[in-house]
Amino acid sequence: MGCAASHEHSDQERPRSDMEKRLDLNAVSDIVRDLCTGKGEVQPKAKLTDPASNRAWTEVLSEPVFGRLCSCPRGTTAPDRLSSRDGRKYVFAFGPETVCGTLLRLEPYEMLVQLGLIPRYIYWKVYKEELPCFLVLFRPGRVQPEPATWDGVIAFISRHYPLCVDRVHKHLPEIKTRSVDDFEKDCSVRFIEALENPTGPDYMTYDRYMALSDPLPWQTRLFLYCELRLFELFTGDGRTKLHDGSLGETEYLCDNVDLTDFGEGNYRIIPLTVTIPDDVIQKYENEGET
Length: 290
What we know:
Elements: H1 2-13, H2 18-21, H3 25-36, E1 66-71, E2 90-94, H4 96-99, H5 108-114, H6 119-128, E3 133-138, E4 146-147, H7 150-160, H8 165-177, H9 180-184, H10 191-195, H11 206-210, H12 217-226, E5 239-241, E6 247-255, E7 267-272, H13 278-286
Antiparallel strand pairs: 1-3, 2-6, 3-7, 4-6, 5-6
Region (Disordered): 1-21
């Protein structure tokens, strides 16, 4: 009896190992959920150069945890796929570096900016369209994310859009060196306005792109913008680029799948309440975005 009591006491006093101190999917999801609902303490002024932000994810997490920001149709209570958009074959995701860094440091709006979304897009989706946003954290399994480089993009196009890969290859050198703003000078289309109107004449679907006999470079870039969501800040070097020109998070590509494909217990859904700063709202209201 005495030995048993002594053994039990020693287990309670035994310091936890480094692995036991690290966070698994469930633990980190609970922390992020509290931060996103105001129950936890967020440090919005933390900088990427802070020592804590430079810790390797393997020092914080006990397993690789990936994630994705999902905006869903109004009225959605929870996403059922990584992207709800019909026909979307692959999506961008963030990796464990972001899970144990940005997600634990920033308020939801700042988090979206750090993930590479431009303020105008956030304003339009969250404020104007009032679309619900969620974070989906998951263990990679059936889905194997790969770095979001130009090589990765071509690999995904080859797999999902094989008939147009030669067209994209033809214009890729020019696309790598020119900005979206520059391509817009070649046409009368503002890309983000085309994106905001999927049923409009300027939205470049796969079918519309393939119907072009000899697409121009700007049309190929618009196809990548609308169909593949390669926005203004995509650089093809595996990192998001922020609207101020600085580098953001490491980003990944992965197939768009049903969340149930991850298997029970292998994903967590976290609702986001995004508060857009008043000055951001005022800026786009003043530009006539009403």
